Amino acid sequence: MEGSPIPVLTVPTAPYEDQRPTGGGGLRRPTGLFEGQRNYLPNFIQSVLSSIDLRDRQGCTMVVGSDGRYFSRTATEIVVQMAAANGIGRLIIGQNGILSTPAVSCIIRKIKAAGGIILTASHCPGGPGGEFGVKFNVANGGPAPDVVSDKIYQISKTIEEYAICPDLRIDLSRLGRQEFDLENKFKPFRVEIVDPVDIYLNLLRTIFDFNAIKSLLTGPGQLKIRVDAMHGVMGPYVRKVLCDELGAPANSAINCVPLEDFGGQHPDPNLTYATTLLEAMKGGEYGFGAAFDADGDRYMILGQNGFFVSPSDSLAIIAANLSCIPYFRQIGVRGFGRSMPTSMALDRVAKAMKVPVYETPAGWRFFSNLMDSGRCSLCGEESFGTGSDHLREKDGLWAVLIWLSIIAARKQSVEEIVRDHWAKFGRHYYCRFDYEGLEPKTTYYIMRDLEALVTDKSFIGQQFAVGSHVYSVAKTDSFEYVDPVDGTVTKKQGLRIIFSDASRLIFRLSSSSGLRATIRLYAESYERDPTGHDQEPQAVLSPLIAIALKISQIHERTGRRGPTVIT
Q1: Domain 200-425 belongs in CATH node 3.40.120.10
Q2: Domain range summary for the chain, segments of one domain joined by +
Q3: Cα dist. 331→200, 207, 328, 377 in Å?
Q4: 413 catalytic residue (yes or no)
Q5: What is the pLDDT of residues 263-311, one digit of tens each?
Q6: Active-site entry in 50, 72, 122, 312
Q7: What is the CATH number of domain 9-193?
């Protein structure tokens, strides 16, 4: 800290009408919009900072991280300059700007920060032609609740100016403290560059039996693993935790260098995009495979020969085996949470364990309230996200360590564990079909007409015959959630059709990018008989899908011949 104080400037601006966070305090848009539209990023950052009450903001500590995608360095610099100008006292930033979403949540909670800003578009592609995003996490370490997102949006619609210190420059590569003297500020502004993994790793050590996992990965008959970081933020975490700490060979980890465009790939851990890992696992050399998305909160599990563990099954199997984890043996299990579209496999485990299940809308922010109130110990979503009350975010690496712990304790393969689970609880066949990149107006009318159809009283009892199958409608609704903690009501969270055999069809509108919309179609069918557990999910679910296509007319109304992605 030397020379004259750095000036704080107030810059006039004009609002944008499209800066409504899509949930959890996040704004996700094409990178070109952030990069090219004048003041687009500063407007939103100012709206986020202004959403924090002035008395809480002045002198407070915040955490800043990114998944390393294109435009992250420029955006990080702007966030730092604006945080300083808005009275933030201290920023904790991952080295080179890198911090996974779970690590941001961990650090916020560890140091009792006022919140955090995460620069990520999650599993969306990066690069100049990709997507960019800004996400605000609050003081509990979780995504901003809707009341905060609404406040951010209201500020963004009336913003007239933003504060910034354009001459403030930080060195993101140098670990340690950097201090800056600002004009009209009594105390210096402080930036601390931290190792992106260390604090999070220390938390993991308190949760798991690292010796048991290390023995699995290094001892006689060691489990050979293959882990794909997909050139996102998780590379340093995989190397430090799985390789350096737990002894997995260095060549177990692939695509571990964070790249601005994720190597030109879609950093989404599913069978459609994690094909490099899938092909490696099909060869039979590896007994366990995992992949992570760009910011490290989503994951996929594969067994030997490419055996796929669906996210809903993974959640249920983790729930059924929590006694393998020291953390849960110590604190116990209070309840489970799942998003409404997630399969009901978790519910069967909960019933056997005699613990409650909370069914919420999609979005991790709904779980945070449950965990803060002590109601929920484990939660998950069908979109490859699982987590517990150790954080307030879904956590990909935590889930992988859970699986390795279960394998070490049970001395079974991934496939054996899954098949044993099906034999005990039955199998929930499940698929999600995404119709992406649709015109928002088109999706609005499709969902409006569907709601009118399925919520009409005459729809109850209708029968649909498809081949040898006859499905009778037992219940329908437009899902709404009443938060058991604060009574907040969240409406229109998806259309449900539940048949007399407990099969389900769900239609849900998603608009994470804000400019185009996605309709997600979910189908679920339960099979108790073990002789029926080896069928292909799409074959089992094809009659339900036929019903869904007939009543929605989605192909005719969108001009699509099929979904963009099937998971």
Answers
A1: yes
A2: 9-193, 200-425, 427-566
A3: 20, 11, 5, 9
A4: no
A5: 999 999 999 999 999 999 999 999 999 999 999 999 999 999 999 999 9
A6: 122
A7: 3.40.120.10
